[in-house]
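Backbone description:
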Amino acid sequence: MSATMGGMNARLLAIATSQGGVFSTHDARGVDVEDTELRALVRAGDIVRVRRGAYVLGTAWATAEHEECLRLRTMAVARTRREDVATHQAALALRHLPLHGVRLDVVDLQGKVGRVRLSAGLRTAPGRLPDTDVDGVRCVSLEHAIVQVLLRSGLEAALLPLDAALRTKKCTLERVEAAVALLVPHTRKALGQRLLELADARSDSPGETRTRLLLHDLGHQWRSQVIICDDNDDFVAKVDFLVEGRVVVEFDGLNKYAGAQGHGALAAEKRREDRLRALGYAIVRLTWADLAKPDRAAAMLRRALAA
């Protein structure tokens, strides 16, 4: 074994670092690191084996959460299958888009196979969609990936990354519409149309997107990112949603009230809400837990509308 850094071959560490924290068995053998050394590094926690022949640096994996785990997993697996193309949520994770309601432990690839195969954290499927390069990994277009997620995992799973992509100008609704026309079968065209109708580039977070979809499913009329002024036309607040013209609905991830600045943020929020109530608005704050229980959120909205 050659010179090491923290128990790991220095050349292999350099290669993995240059590749975003991932490497393959082939990469390791190229710098004279054998399988026995890789197994020792796995036991020591210096690297993580995410699939046969695919590894992630332990430091990168330890801090990864949710979509980032799938992104690293996809990058590592792609090092072992250079001819295949990342699809579905794997292609979205590579672009750092938010994911919800999809599997994060399986990498989806389009390859030269006759049928869909699922084995040990890898799903390969036949396909000929054009691909592009993202961080050294071949993947389908963002629009195609969103529609693939729509068809497999449903409206909510596709709407979250779509809103984020529209907000950050990574795609346009026109290109998504073209992908819907290409990939969505005739029997499911209504699903594709709902995705296009509900997409909103003004959504600031996955929580807001899920709140908007909940309002839609509950049958409410709403406007998003509404600016409210007082009787003197002075700015009071910009609210996430205004429902039926009289109920302010805010998604609250609660993170802004954490830490040393939390008390100040909470006090400012209370003053803001007091001004809104003085103008006659009822206020409903929804959290992640409320979104997981639509009946509870529905009851909160009914009470606010009745008041």
Remarks:
- Confidence is low (pLDDT under 50) at residues 1-5.
- The domain at 1-63 is CATH 1.10.10 (Arc Repressor Mutant, subunit A).
- The chain has three domains: 1-63, 64-200, 206-306.
- The chain has 14 helices and 15 strands.
